[in-house]
Amino acid sequence: QLQLVESGGGLVQAGGSLRLSCTASGRTVSTYAMGWFRQAPGKEREFVVGMSWSGGTTLYADSVKGRFINSRDNAKNAVYLQMNGLKPEDTAVYCCAAKSVWNRNYVPTENEYDYWGQGIQVTVSS
After folding, report:
1. What are the C-alpha distances in Å from 82 to residues 2, 40, 41, 61, 101?
2. Tens digits of residue pLDDT in 26-55
3. pLDDT, mean of residues 63-73
4. What count of other Cβ atoms lies within 10 Å of the Cβ of residue 36?
5. Angle at 89 between CA 87 and CA 91, to 5 degrees
6. N or C end of the chain: smaller count of CB under 10 Å?
7. Average pLDDT, the chain
8. CA dihedral (76, 73, 35, 111) positive or negative
């Protein structure tokens, strides 16, 4: 059973940066596509970024493109989300997700992910 744990969240002022980590245990995620999603109070969960297991394909939501950078370190069984230029509208609970896929360059849709972390709060003050 794969388990995902997020860390690195917190409170930051607008314009600041945070780096989220998602560490996997139980299985190696070297052949898992990984994604980040977020859910703000009163809103539905939304896609932030998805990365294929090869790292060859990375898709970003338009709202974070140019500000957020996703990376993965298969040796550490982890993915990272560097968030720069944070805005109050980025405030949300951020979750990482994983799915084992055959295609090295495939990024799953939200409903295809099999494993989810508990989530971590990111709050951006104005």
Report:
1. 23, 19, 22, 14, 24
2. 999 999 999 999 999 999 999 999 999 998
3. 97
4. 26
5. 90
6. N
7. 96
8. negative
